[in-house]
Amino acid sequence: MRYTQIIELIRKYQPLKLLEVGTWRGQRAEEMILEAMKHHASVTYLGFDLFEDATEETDAKEFNVKKHYEKDVVRNYLRQKFPVCDIQLVRGNTNETLKGFKGEYDFAFIDGGHSIETIQNDGDNTAHIPIRVFDDYYIEDEIGCPDITKVGCNQYIESLKSKYKIEILPDADPIKQGGKTQLVLVTKQC
Fold it and tell me: Which long-range contacts (CB under 8 A, 24 or more apart) does 96-100 make?
């Protein structure tokens, strides 16, 4: 599963301050915090998601097929699990809530909305974070591939190649409708 690569990256870079776009139910947050706490007594986590603001319209626009969770439920779970950590969640559309974001974080996992517009917004507003991992980089398989002119980070990653070091991580997971999805590591050029 491609998500184990995130844990490997946290082990390698040992970030103290984690940011996630697309917190969903907190599963990835929990995994990232657990690994980061192997290297620090406490970590900071900031998560962005629509949570209960999600609608059928936002699901259609962002190509979401998952159930939604309430912000307070996810926040309380994470705070109970990690009482020594600074856990903050932001509810709302990142096209608004992430605009102009300047927070100092070491590591960002970007897996919120899947539309080209939202991925570009999320990427541009986290560009100052030195280590970013993007989900939803699509490749074709024998069945096909999602339409990368409408969905996924492929186009955004392509636009970064002259400014950042890009590494498409090797593990890929199949998509029911055809194609596979991978993670992409984006770091500052040396």
Answer: 97/48, 98/21, 98/48, 98/122, 98/125, 98/126, 99/125, 100/125
Entry pTM: 0.95
DSSP string for 65-103:
-S----HHHHHHHHHHH-TTSEEEEEES-HHHHTTT---
| 10-residue stretch averages of pLDDT, the chain, 190 residues long | 97 98 96 98 97 88 86 97 98 96 97 96 97 97 90 97 97 93 90
- The residues with which 185 forms a beta bridge, in sequence order, are 133, 167
The SS3 call for residue 46 is strand
- Beta strands 17-21 and 44-49, pairing class: parallel
Nearest to 187 by CA among 3, 9, 42: 9
What domains does the chain contain, in order, with CATH numbers?
4-188 (3.40.50.150)
Residue appearing with tokens 């100052």: 128
